[in-house]
Amino acid sequence: MAVMLLTAGFGFTACGSRTENAAEKVEDEREDVVEAQRDAQGNIAEEQAELDSARADLAESWQQERDEMRSEIREERQELDARISALEADMKNAKSEAREDYRKVVADLREERTRLDAQGDRLEAATKENWQDTKREVRQAADEVGAKLKRAGNDIKAYFRDDN
User: Residue 156 is part of which domain span?
Assistant: First the structure.
């Protein structure tokens, strides 16, 4: 009987050890989960910081592009104004037949200046969300104004070549 009690005691000890081992394993796994959650929180914080930085870069980037386009539009407008002034001065000295051609060209260029001003206003109202569309449309309009400006000079030159 003593052997049985002793054997039964070992059995309980073994069962107790198995339970303790399982409990320790559960505790170890719980600690691993807690540690993984802490690591994940750290990773999430790092990823959020990277996302915030990328967003800031994007905001700065589109604003820099907008500022560059504003400058280009201002330069184009100054060139347009200078061309209009030069044509108006030439118109005063032109033969009466040529004055009508000058008036047409100047009127066209003034319309283009108005169009360019409208594009400048669009740049002012641009947002990060609509920047790509605004940039494309303003660039296209500025290119068209530049082409008209070049054509206007060519039209006047052609008139004088034909006049001679």
Answer: 2-163
Rounded to two decimals, the pTM is 0.60
> Which one-letter amino acid corresponds to residue 78?
Q
Q: Are 150 and 90 in contact (CB under 8 A)?
A: no
Digitized pLDDT (tens) for each residue of the chain, 164 residues in all:
544 444 444 444 455 688 888 888 888 888 888 888 887 777 888 888 888 888 877 778 888 999 999 999 999 999 899 989 998 998 898 888 888 888 988 999 999 999 999 999 999 999 989 999 999 999 999 899 888 888 877 766 665 555 54
Distance of alpha carbon 135 from alpha carbon 23, whole angstroms: 64
Name the CA radius of gyration of the chain, rounded: 39
Alpha-carbon gap, residue 145 to 37, rounded angstroms: 59
Q: Provide the number of structural domains found in the chain.
A: 1
Q: Cβ atoms within 10 A of the Cβ of 92, count?
A: 8
